[in-house]
């Protein structure tokens, strides 16, 4: 899609109102099931971890429990890590990567670090394979305690209730071809702005915090993932999705200023992973493996360097 092809909802140059949001909602259809894909795996993990219901969404009569898992014996003397997936519901390997980490690798960190894992922050969007929630809001630009995204507020309240300080937070995401074919054009239409086409990077990359950069930590994550899948190169301008590449596979955002999920703990070590599942050079299982590798590398580095 280019800026010469209008988005099918709204009037060019005019932000959406209630009518346009209703039209957008009418286009969204359930394509998979949170209660079948995600909840049973969380329930199975509840044999080893405490299952926490930290909120409930009710969108037009469709109810979703917001679920997290945490160490059964949360030790206040240990550092704490937050792992989040599915902030954007359509980013599948984020959800599946968080679950796979718990199933396959988390036991190795017992008695070393407290784990709090929210595998699917946005279940309504997970089912619609969408970036936004029911209110046509991107949760990952609205992690503010008084913000409009109910998913974001609930997760922030969970973090605040946990107590203690967080050492590391890994937020698992994807960058997909649909970012350019659907989501960015929809964003421009919703906000009454012109759509400016961008370039989708082919490969894995991460986002560090420009207000608290941790270059050695970031490179440890990239080095681990590079053994699993390919790393996105910079484009001709030396950028990835419009941001300068500060190291191979690494860009920086001001996480808190942008209201991004990775800002909510105030952890020393934070990263947002970005897998590219549409690449012909990867597979769905490899994308999940890359997310797991990123989580393990982040925890290993944080535990070693404090």
From TrEMBL:
Please list where the region (Disordered) is annotated: 1-21
Q: Which Pfam families match?
A: AstE_AspA_cat (PF24827)
One GO biological process term is: proteolysis
**Coiled-coil spans in chain:** none
Q: Which domain of life is it from?
A: Bacteria
Per UniProt, what is one GO molecular function of this protein?
zinc ion binding
Active site, renumbered: 274
What are the names of the required cofactors? Zn(2+)
**Which key words are in the record?**
Hydrolase, Metal-binding, Zinc
Q: Which residues form the Peptidase M14 domain?
A: 30-306
Q: Which family does the record claim for this protein?
A: Belongs to the peptidase M14 family.
Q: What name has this protein been given in UniProt? A: DUF2817 domain-containing protein
Biological source species: Sphingomonas crocodyli
